[in-house]
Write a structure and sequence with these properties.
Radius of gyration: 18 Å
Distance between the termini: 28 Å
Largest sheet: 7 strands, mixed
Helix content: 40-55%
Strand content: 15-25%
Order of helices and strands: HEEHEHEHEHEEH
Number of strands: 7
Strand order of the largest sheet: 1-7-6-2-5-3-4
Shape: globular
Number of helices: 6
Length: 244
């Protein structure tokens, strides 16, 4: 029954999602050119709030839990497991006061209304996975911006999405590059649970009545171990929440 209803309601949910992207694309341009960084960021935050609401068309729900007393005004590296494209809007919206920027593939900077514009102009890092030198330089420049502005970073250390929700081994290279330039950045794991279930059949039909959860876990201070050890600790904490 859920799959059958998904065939009926998925086109509506997808249309709502893309309508928001189309509406906010020119709004981002206006905000950036008339109000600068602050206005553009506020526009992006509002966009992601509306993108979250689009999943409710399908009876799906988003729960975001943050019981941690995270510092404002200090660089933070948020490390999350990756299950679907929906992972991103809740993290942008609910962690908005930390000015966290995504590390994304350079391919995403073209052709997607609103999303590509924000990736180009929002201050994050866009890396070419086929060019290690470009990736390192881009991450280094981004880490410098983090340090200068006390921004946060959002990174998916698995490197690719999990299709069944199981956490893949974390890679530490990206985090290591950020910490070289921004050594005081706090490491914060974020456990994402069951967002993969919404796309278990692909983009059509989307699954319905799926409760999805994002939970911010206990932060990890840099310098309390090697980068590999700290990233593995974040992975273990996330795995314990997601695969329990």
């Amino acid at each position: 029954m859920r799959k059958f209803l998904g065939y009926i309601l998925s086109p509506i949910a997808i249309a709502v999602f893309f309508i928001f992207l189309l509406i906010f694309h020119p709004l981002q341009w206006l905000c950036l050119h008339l109000g600068g960084y602050s206005a553009h960021k506020r526009c992006v935050d509002i966009l992601n709030f509306f993108l979250i609401t689009s999943v409710y068309v399908l009876g799906n729900t988003v729960t975001f839990i943050n019981r941690q007393d995270l510092p404002v005004g200090r660089p933070i590296i948020f490390m999350a497991n990756h299950q679907s494209l929906l992972d991103i809007p809740p993290m942008i919206y609910f962690l908005r006061k930390y000015h966290a920027k995504f590390i994304s593939k350079v391919e995403l900077t073209k052709g997607i209304p609103s999303i590509s514009y924000n990736l180009k102009h929002g201050g994050g890092a866009n890396i070419d996975r086929k060019d290690p030198r470009q990736s390192i330089m881009e991450l280094s420049r981004f880490a410098t911006r983090m340090k200068e502005n006390n921004w946060g970073a959002m990174i998916f250390p698995e490197g690719t999405r999990s299709k069944d929700g199981r956490v893949k081994p974390f890679q530490s290279a990206g985090v290591a590059t950020l910490l070289k330039k921004c050594p005081n950045a706090l490491l914060v794991p974020v456990a994402i649970t069951d967002s993969w279930k919404m796309i278990r059949y692909g983009l059509y039909p989307l699954n319905m009545f799926t409760p999805m959860k994002w939970e911010v876990l206990e932060p990890i201070e840099p310098g309390t171990g090697t980068v590999d050890e700290l990233v593995k600790l974040a992975e273990d904490r996330i795995r314990a929440k997601v695969e329990k």
